[in-house]
Write a structure and sequence with these properties.
Blueprint lengths: L2 H30 L3 H27 L19 H28 L3 H31 L3 H16 L2
Bound molecules: hydroxy diiron-OXO moiety.
Keywords: Cytoplasm, Iron, Iron storage, Metal-binding, Oxidoreductase
Organism: Lacinutrix gracilariae
Catalytic activity: 4 Fe(2+) + O2 + 6 H2O = 4 iron(III) oxide-hydroxide + 12 H(+)
Length: 164
């Protein structure tokens, strides 16, 4: 495997791991602040990002590349409210999409169609996740700071997410 691509895939392992830990911190904050639906949503997002990370680890190993399990930054764990949680969620997904696009770009430059093909799964996944993050943030922006609206959002979030 080309060393640039190998490095980018290792970077991507780190971004997926970082997203997993960030969503875990968000789930835990929501749990501690009485938003049980939001907590379940982020616990499961955290699990999904870990799966994304593992898929990359296994792929790099299958291709006889060298996986470097990364050190991570401490995630943000204090938030002003659930709107900030979802702003952060969208921001994180946009960041990951940009990084995936960078991997795709390098694959094309290096004519590595195998990795390019593998990365298509991430492209599709990111489209869905970004769309879901935007939908949820749009709903919250409509609700604004209304507490009963936040109560209903928390109650309904997993239905909204699963029907997305
Ligand atoms: Fe949603 O970040 Fe993984 O791919």
């Amino acid at each position: 495997m080309n060393t640039t691509i190998e490095q980018l895939l290792n970077d991507q392992i780190k971004y997926e791991a970082q997203a997993s830990m960030q969503y875990l911190a968000m789930a835990s904050w929501a749990d501690a602040n009485g938003f049980n639906g939001v907590a379940d949503f982020f616990y499961s997002q955290s699990d999904e990002e870990r799966v994304h990370m593992l898929k990359l680890v296994k792929f790099v190993n299958e291709r006889s590349g060298n996986v470097v399990v990364p050190a991570l930054q401490k995630p943000t764990d204090s938030f002003s409210g659930i709107i900030e949680l979802f702003e952060k969620f969208l921001e994180s997904e946009i960041f990951v999409t940009e990084k995936i696009n960078q991997v795709i770009y390098e694959c094309l430059q290096n004519k590595d169609y195998n990795v390019h093909n593998f990365m298509q799964w991430y492209v599709t996944e990111q489209l869905e996740e970004e769309a879901m993050a935007r939908t949820l943030l749009d709903k919250l922006n409509i609700i604004g700071t209304d507490k009963s609206g936040h109560y209903l959002f928390d109650r309904d979030i997993n239905d909204i997410a699963s029907s997305h």
